[in-house]
Amino acid sequence: LNPKEEAEMNTHNIKHLSLAIGLALAGTASAGSIDFTGSNIYIKFLDGDRLTEANGSIDTNSGGDQGQFSELELRMHAVISPQVEAGARVQSRSSAAYWSEFGFNGEDDPALPFTHKKFMKLRGAYVTLTPGYNWLDMATIGSSDWGMFDAFTFGKMRYIDRDNLNGLYFKGPIAGGSWEFARISLPEYLGPEFNSGSLSANDAAHIAQFKATLADTKFTAILENVSDQERLASDTTLTDGVDSVNRMRNNIFGFKAETSLMDSLDINAAFYRSNYDINNVQLANWSNLLGTNYNDNAFQINLDWSTPVDGLTVNYQHFNIGAGYVSATGARRESDVLLTEGSEAAWYGWGDPMWVGGRANDMQQVAVTIRDNDYTDFDETGAESSIGWKGDTVLLGYEVLDTPMSLEFSKIGYNTNWQDWGGKQDVFDVINWAGATGPGFKEDQDRDTTILALKVSHVFDVIGGLATSLKIKSVDDTDTRTINLAADDQKTEDLGTTLTVGNQLSDDLYGSISYGKYSRDVTIGNTAYNSDKDIYSLRFAYNLAGFEAGMLTQWISGEGDPNQDGTVDSLKQYRLKAYAKVLF
Amino acid sequence: MTPGEKMLQRFWLCILLCIGLSCIAYAGDSPDDIVIKDTLNDDTGNGTLIYPTRHDFQSGDLDLTELSIQPVTDGYWFKAEFKNPIRNPAKVTTDSGPEPLSEFARKGFYNFNIDIYIDEDNIIASGNTFTLPGRHATLAAEHAWERAIILTPRPETMRSLLIETLQQQFSSLPPAEIEQKINAQILFADRVQVRGKSISFFVPAQFFNTAASNWSITAFITAAKLQVEATWSPSDEPVDADSLELGVMQPASGRPANQLAYRDSAKPLPIVDILAASTAEQNSMLSHNASLQAGGPGKEKSDHNAIPVTSLAAFIGAPPAVANNVTNNTTGNPLPNPDNVTRRLETLQLLYKDNIITEDEYHQQRQRILNEL
After folding, report:
1. Between chains, do A409 and B11 touch, taking CB under 8 Å as contact?
2. What is the ipTM of this complex?
3. I need a surface site. Which of A156, A464, A507, B253 has the fewest CB within 10 A?
4. Alpha helices, DSSP H only, in chain B?
5. Which is nearest to A167 in space by CA: A246, A249, A224, A234?
6. What are residue A202's phi and psi, to 5 degrees?
7. Partner B contacted by A351 (CB < 8 A)
8. Which candidate from A380, A401, A404 shows the least CB-CB separation from B98?
9. In the A/B pair of chains, how many CB contacts fall below 8 A?
10. Residues of chain B positioned with their CB less than 8 A from the CB of A398
11. Which of B91, B190, B256 has its CB closest to that of A364?
12. Could you tell me which of A565, A498, A564 has the C-alpha nearest to residue A359?
């Protein structure tokens, strides 16, 4: 090395050393000006015996049930002054094969999925101001999960990360209530046909939310505008700015009210109106949004009653979500807009060998056409679209002899019950991909669903408390499809019984075992396709200060006709997910 | 029979089963419930606390409206009513990792803790006045407690964390003795039932020395923090149990998503709601340097010149010397341990009350101890 190179190298070394010392000090003394609380190392261990091999995916839904990876999340939060705080997250991503890839493989290959590249990347950064003005409580610039809004308007749309969305948020007081306003940059995919065309960096959703309480009744009014602008093709002059035209516009008005009619009876209702317009977009046959302009409504009423009968509660929900209700920015996951449990999770993804065992957690319903279950494992809650659903749910809760129980009865009809798209093929014949991503609108449908779910639990006072629960759930679904054509009538009867026994084995370790028996009897025309499976599960949760670990192992066996072609296949699957998390 | 008719038949069968079970249950009801009402819309601590900006912490979620105690054959069912329905962790995910919160909070709730401190003997200053770590509050000596019941979403974890930290901090004490002392007087409730806006938890009768009708009750709500971060220490010194958050979300400046915020310039106690006759009384109790008062029906108190236990260390019987090994950063001299000072003052007071030392001697020695601070 010449003296100059040596001097430069020394300088670099000192910089690295300073950084290392700085990080070390920060790690050991989180009470400094930067707080690293919440930083974590997350390790996932997937194991399974599916025939097909995982291809670098990181979760069940994208095809992986084998592989192990480690991820690091570094969280930083600092109070700059009494009025200013800021934070950021740096997060690594891995493929499920991170451990077996031995630290390389694919980092320089652009053709391989990003999960192989082991990026450490800025995932979210924000600044929050609390200036102390009497008209402004707080302002946030940057990333958030935007959970302060409503699942029907601007909801959660995590795509791996919850804070992928960035924008500006303001909140302040108004006449005994509050106002909120946000301008959120529209993700590039969030337009018709999963793209927002040109000028995507300018596209945004604007949302205002007002909350007030009048005479013990809480009111919320929401106004939202989602605008996907497009450069006007005729504008070719480079020096006079850009002329744009609306490619997609989605306006939503929402109004919610909640009050207590008496001490034990609460009622709340919500109404939403969506206007959806698109211009100059020639849709192909698959889109996350409707094919052409359409306006529709969604509403629900909820009653929660703690009855005079000791231990008896009654919840009732009436809901009606229009087939053409569009909220481009509505929650796609991690939200549950309906009281019902919805479909049987154990049959989730039936027909796909990846999902022989279905999901190990209940489903939840979201009010968008394309719900999102990407990057989820079999132990996570799955989302299903409730667009077009209308009906009623009654949920009775009762407790007797220290035995809580609940009983759900739901009757669901569909606004999508129509023949020949209800005469609106141009609107609805664009989301007909009935695979893993969306429920699809069908050309001919005449469907209704009945759900009955009974849950009983009891803690037996032996070996420190034996928590026992029993769940029986049946879902009957009929769809006569084309009227006057009996051959395509479809009837699906799901019946599942699950018995679980759990015990706190020590202060640090909880374990449970469960057995579930599930049947799905499908009849199309006069042909029956019956499937049965048993699922044995073993679950552990272990924790120490700063450390959490969990494991779910399932063994699935049975026989059935997942392809509904008259061939009965044997069903056999073993799958395991374990995770360990260290929190700093 | 159509599928719909079959479902209806199953539905009515289930209803009949519930009715049958309820008929059996009514025979066991007790008429001796204790009911304590709390002011509505007072979930702001001392008046300055603000909920976290997280969407699943909404005003009213931590607003206690009523606490009742129902005696049953083998114990007591405590029941707390809140203004809002209690949030279920089953479909909520953690903020680090995709696992549902119910993996960690298995009792059917996740965003609050309830602390109940019971004065069983109603003797002034007899018992304990400290509260568990993370609460940062002190009870008035008049309501010094003999039994504490903690309802927290992760009872086993918090109990284990408290005991293990104490065992490491006071390694000179037999570990089993520490655990025994905690178990004898502090119960982390683990039989829990959630229904709508109410949560019930069971405490066995043998945990108490007296019947519920004698109790003086101090109860409060804190926001729950589920995650327990690793405690970092630059040296090998054991962690001080008093520094634990023990599942309590602390107030922080700004408008954080995962912590309470506050309006005033002074950081308030992390107590969001406490059983009190009025909001003004609550604000006063939770103001700085104030002591918590019992919120239940008034009990007649007797004075037997008792001296309360004011710290967790004293509660487990830690020898004063163990805790008195911290040195002054500038002089290198040992800093007086506040617990030690308290205990010496208490001893001094006892000697004076028993007429072993004179008043002059008492004041002289008292000043000498205080001068060490």
Report:
1. yes
2. 0.82
3. A464
4. 3-26, 155-169, 175-185, 279-285, 312-315, 320-323, 338-353, 359-371
5. A224
6. -95, -10
7. no
8. A380
9. 179
10. 18, 21-22
11. B91
12. A498
Contact A348, A363 (CB under 8 A): yes
**Interface membership of A465 toward B (CB under 8 Å):** yes
Name the residue type at position A91: Q
Q: Is A468 on the interface with B (CB under 8 A)?
A: no
The CA distance from A357 to A374, in Å, is 17
Interchain contact, A546 vs B54, CB within 8 Å: no
Structure tokens at A436: 């893993």
Cβ within 8 Å of B, A 43-62: none
Inter-chain touch B21–A400, beta carbons under 8 Å:
yes
User: Is the pLDDT at B331 greater than 60, yes or no?
Assistant: no
Range ranked top by mean pLDDT from A4-18, A192-206, B181-195: B181-195
Q: Is A7 exposed, middle or buried (0-12, 13-18, 19+ CB in 10 A)?
A: exposed
Other C-beta atoms closer than 10 Å to the C-beta of A258 total 18
pLDDT at B303 over 90: no
Distance CA A187, CA A251 (A): 17
| Chain B residues near residue A582 by CB distance under 8 angstroms | 230
Taking the C-alpha atoms of residue A481 and residue A483, their distance in angstroms, rounded to an integer, is 6
Give the pLDDT confidence of A320-352 residue by residue, as tens digits. Answer: 999 999 999 999 888 899 999 999 999 999 988
Q: Which of B90, B106, B252 sits opposite A510 (nearest CB)?
A: B106
Among the partner-chain residues B4, B196, B252, the one whose CB lies closest to the CB of A304 is B196
Whole-number Å distance between alpha carbons of B13 and A339: 22
Q: What is the DSSP letter of B159?
A: H
Q: For an interface test with A, give the residue of B2, B6, B8, B11 to mutate (most A CBs within 10 A).
A: B11
Q: How far apart are CA B307 and CA B363, in angstroms?
A: 18
Which of B6, B18, B26, B265 to mutate: most A Cβ within 10 Å?
B18
- pTM listed for this prediction: 0.84
What lies within 8 Å, CB to CB, of B138 at 6+ separation is: B129, B130, B131, B291, B292, B310
CA atoms within 13 A on the CB side of A130: 20
Residues of chain A contacting residue B167, judged by C-beta atoms under 8 Å apart: none
> Is residue B130 a contact partner of residue B141, using CB atoms and an 8 Å limit?
no
Reported as type and span, the H/E element at residue A240 is none
Question: How does DSSP classify residue B262?
Answer: E
Q: pLDDT for A525-569, tens place per residue? A: 999 999 999 999 999 999 888 899 999 999 999 999 988 888 899
Computed over its alpha carbons, how large is the radius of gyration of chain B?
23
Closest CA to B229 of A583, A575, A446: A583
